Amino acid sequence: MPQRAKASGQTRRRATAPVALSLLSPLAVLFSLTVIALLAFAVTNIRQSARFADIFLVAERLEQSGQISPETLARTAADTDMIVSGDYCRSDIVMAGTTLVLNRLDTANEITGYEAWAKAADDAERYMRHAVSCMPSESNLWLRLAIVRAVIAQEPKSIARLMTMSARLAPSDELALLARVYFWNHLNVATLENARTTVEGDVSLLLKLGDSRKVAPALTRISAALLPYVKQAATQLPANKKGSLTWFGFNPDKQP
Predict the structure, then answer these.
(1) Does the global pTM surpass 0.85?
(2) Residue 17 falls within a domain, yes or no?
């Protein structure tokens, strides 16, 4: 009897072992696949970071001090073509490249170096379209694409559409409002008219909700095109807000 019981127990153990293995096998496979995927992702990120190391470095220097030689900027900004052609959409890569192409466009001189300026403008427009396609929910990228389009040729409907998209994505963010109103202040009457609702909303929100210490300096010089929108929004401000803006250098009641 003891031998039979012992044999019976061994039989049961042998019978249950494959069942346990069959239950663990899918989990083990899933774990292995997850580890492989994570390793592949990590290796890809490392390779991309190494490939665009110069772009990261120059972009960081530009954001910190803005002191980069024209030769270094031109050479490194040219490397941003790889971001577009390679369809790289990692956010930090896209934003670093954005800093470079816009700085190259800013430093190009349309009068003394038209060919270089035209290439910088075309490259910036192409790059910003790629950036927007990668990060369509980023309000700042729509704004920058609008800026590039305005530099190339101020097409009222196109620019108004891009600015409206920027406003929809970040309707009340103070930094976004300041950036848009700054840009509205450099656009012509036709462009503002094509985006009237957006312009009115941006100016009104900035005056009502913005920090007077930041808003007042931004409105010390208002273009003739934007002035009617500012004056209209100012009529809706409470006395204490007007007083705060006046204290920091912008008197809403004394606009021409």
Answers:
(1) no
(2) no
